[in-house]
Specification:
heterodimer, A: mainly alpha, two-stranded antiparallel sheet, B: alpha/beta, Rossmann fold, Coagulation Factor XIII, Chain A, domain 1, 5-stranded mixed sheet, 11 helices, 20 strands, 33% strand
Chain lengths: 291, 429
């Protein structure tokens, strides 16, 4: 948007609109002023998402749950994929939770600028509000699916036929951090895709392909421990690898903390998000003209 | 700087790319291709020159060097034909898009209404859309909640407030959308052609609300094609043409200049070959025009001036008993009249058989004939009880502006399609 200078005077603020060139400041203050809009956009996304569907919000649970069942049959039972000693359904479902948040962000945030085109060409607000709201609205689905995970943990712990017990460790306190990491990654990728999509509609075709490809390089159906030791850090360049491993560590009490892997993933995620923010801001001023 | 300045616009310009990038979206391949070929092309001076020329012709200036200012509390009108740059100006001032050159300075909180119902979601209820739309327009949540009842009352859709707006009629939808917008309370309000929608009743209500806003001492920048709204709401008006500011004057003078100089959009319909059905032969319609006395083709005419309508056509073979004529309707669908070029007995006799050739049939509506509003001209070419060669029931739409018509001292819409200047006499007995 315009490079704007807002000067506070006792009685009024002066807004200067002039051509902006090059990289612009993030102007997060302006974004903060519009926090209620972000809230309303999230609220709209959530309200509308399952309107006129027979199963409503249960889709938020059905999607990861059915995927988990399919994975369990295919990879767990048929392919006998190792799962770090965790029952395969629990293993894959824990991975599918942040994965669902990420893929939803990828496709929704990636398309968000296009779906909100009419707003962008008609009214001013910090454009960042759109991809941010669309990433955050995934949290609602995440929360619903998370309830099922709690149920699964209870089920496994109360089943006398199973030797396996989920032991809650203090590591669970780090869960919000991994959730934050998942959000940062989602926002980073979402910002890049949404800004690129305004100019290049190729992104619409890239998104499904990207999601599929990304699934293969993320330890959801298989454990990261399958990756040879020397490739581990390279593997962690995919920030979702750190996120998924972190989730398992925090929730399922796997005994080794995936420390170095998470450090690599986190730095990549933060880099993605910050570069995404700046790229988005740079492209933003032409959005209304190009979209 | 004047202390009571609300908006200052200095040498503001906006350039748009047209052609390739507007017709379709760029694809990655194109950009990558350009990146690769650009360094190669750069070596050849001849190529560089042609590339520069190509780039220049792909760009148009939607606004060029606009300078003006608006005092606090002033209501300024902006008029100009389509493409004159009105909307671009408003988009820049409402921060939707950046200027290419120059700058603008805005003193105070701006609210812009480039459209009503921005961000309305069809699946959400009226209530939910009020909250959402309010937030999009920059209202605080508390502010929306405080005004909620007022908004609902203004929209007159109380009964359906919890119904998804996709079930609303278009009138209800517009009323609700306008109601939210009308309760925006910025210090500076920027309004585009939002009043051009909806039925007459709705427009009247919007206009009323707008004049309330204007009287509250807020600064308003008001774009409209509706000259009577401009005359009613603004004291001063700027006229834009081809991206440039051509006039700033008291509204009466500006509107007069605009209407009489033919800045209004071309009122011409040209039929291309593929629009004409094969059974029209030998009749070939070419164009239909609305002209004012100066022979300028316009789409907006004044009620107080005569208007000429011309139909140009050719005949590839002689046709006997041909009559070429028009229907006039209001945009609400009321029939005004039907008239043919051979209605007159003498002309009817003279053109029993019309030889092949190129023709214009024209008539002139007298001054003080049509009331304010939008009218549709339909075209019919037929031989009575033999054959209808061609019909286009909505060939052209034009607008009649009532400025200067009888009764304009009362700010009320006049019912009826005619606005005659009758010779009233008042006799004291």
């Amino acid at each position: 948007m315009s490079q704007t200078t807002i000067t506070h005077r006792p009685s009024e603020e002066i807004l200067v609109l002039r051509p902006s060139r090059g990289w612009s400041a993030l102007n997060l203050i302006d974004l903060w002023r519009y926090r209620e809009l972000i809230y309303f956009l999230i609220w709209r996304d959530v309200k509308v998402r399952y309107k006129q569907t027979a199963l409503g919000a249960s889709w938020a649970i059905i999607q990861p749950f059915v995927t988990m069942v399919v994975f369990t049959i295919l990879f767990g039972n048929l392919a006998k994929m190792p799962s770090d000693g965790i029952p395969y359904p629990l293993f894959s479902y824990t991975g599918l939770l942040p994965w669902g948040l990420f893929t939803k962000a990828l496709s929704d945030a990636g398309r968000s600028m296009i779906t909100n085109r009419s707003m962008i060409t008609k009214v001013y607000f910090p454009r960042l509000a759109i991809p941010i709201a669309s990433v955050l609205s995934g949290l609602v689905d995440f929360a619903l699916a998370f309830v099922v995970l709690i149920g699964m943990i209870l089920f496994y712990n109360n089943n006398p036929n199973l030797e396996y017990q989920v032991v809650l460790t203090p590591a669970i306190l780090t869960l919000p951090l991994f959730l934050l990491l998942a959000l940062i990654t989602s926002l980073g990728v979402g910002l890049w895709l949404s800004a690129l999509n305004v100019q290049y509609r190729d992104i619409n075709y890239i998104i499904p392909f990207l999601t599929q490809f990304w699934l293969f390089i993320t330890p959801i159906a298989y454990p990261a421990s399958m990756i040879p030791e020397k490739w581990q850090l390279l593997y962690a360049l995919n920030p979702m690898a750190g996120v998924v491993e972190g989730f398992r560590w925090a929730l399922l009490g796997v005994d080794t903390a995936p420390g170095p892997m998470i450090a690599v993933s986190a730095s990549i995620a933060v880099t993605l998000m910050i570069s995404g923010l700046y790229y988005f801001r740079r492209m933003e001023r032409t959005f209304a003209d190009e979209i | 700087m004047m202390p009571d300045l609300a908006i200052r616009v200095e040498n503001l310009s906006k350039q748009y790319k047209i052609g390739v990038s507007q017709e379709r979206y760029r694809t990655l391949r194109e950009t990558l291709g350009e990146r690769v070929s650009a360094p190669i092309r750069r070596f050849s001076p001849a190529n560089r020159l042609s590339a520069a020329n190509g780039a220049a012709s792909n760009r148009i200036w939607a606004l060029r060097g606009i300078t003006f200012d608006v005092r606090k509390g002033q209501v300024l009108g902006v008029i100009g034909r389509n493409g004159a740059g009105k909307s671009t100006l408003l988009k820049i001032l409402s921060r939707v898009t950046d200027p290419t050159e120059g700058y603008a300075e805005i003193h105070g909180r701006v609210g812009s209404l480039l459209e009503v119902g921005t961000g309305f979601h069809p699946e959400l209820t009226g209530r939910e859309n009020i909250l959402l739309n309010g937030a999009i327009l920059g209202m605080k949540r508390i502010e929306i909640e405080r005004k909620f009842d007022e908004i609902v009352a203004f929209s007159e859709v109380e009964q359906f407030i919890d119904t998804p707006v996709k079930r609303y009629s278009s009138g209800m939808y517009l009323r609700l959308a306008f109601a939210v917008a009308a309760h925006l309370e910025p210090e500076i309000l920027v309004v585009d052609e939002v009043l051009a929608v909806g039925d007459a009743e709705f427009q009247r209500k919007c206009l009323g609300k707008m004049s309330d806003v204007a009287q509250e001492g807020r600064t308003v920048l008001f774009v409209s094609h509706n000259m009577s709204a401009i005359l009613r709401l603004t004291e001063e008006t700027i006229v834009l043409d081809k991206g440039q500011l051509v006039m700033r004057a008291p509204t009466g003078a500006a509107v007069d200049h605009y209407l009489s100089s033919g800045y209004a959009q071309t009122g011409e319909r040209i039929w291309t070959a593929d629009e004409i059905p094969p059974e029209a032969v030998p009749f070939r319609p070419m164009s239909l025009r609305v002209l004012i006395a100066s022979r300028r083709v316009v789409d907006m005419v004044r009620s107080t001036e005569p208007v000429t309508v011309e139909i140009e056509y050719s005949l590839s073979a002689p046709v006997s008993g041909l009559r070429v004529g028009v229907y006039l309707l209001t945009t609400r669908g009321e029939q005004v009249f039907t008239s043919f070029d051979t209605d007159d007995a003498e002309l009817y006799e003279r053109f029993t058989t019309r030889p092949a050739g190129h023709y214009i049939s024209r008539f002139t509506l007298p001054s003080d004939f049509l009331n304010e509003g939008r009218y549709v001209i339909g075209v019919n070419a037929s031989t009575f009880r033999v054959k209808r060669y061609f019909i286009d029931e909505q060939a052209l739409i034009f607008t009649v502006d009532p400025a200067g018509a009888p009764g304009m001292q009362w700010q009320e819409p006049r019912i009826g399609v005619m606005r005659p200047r009758l010779e009233w006499q008042i006799e004291a007995l």
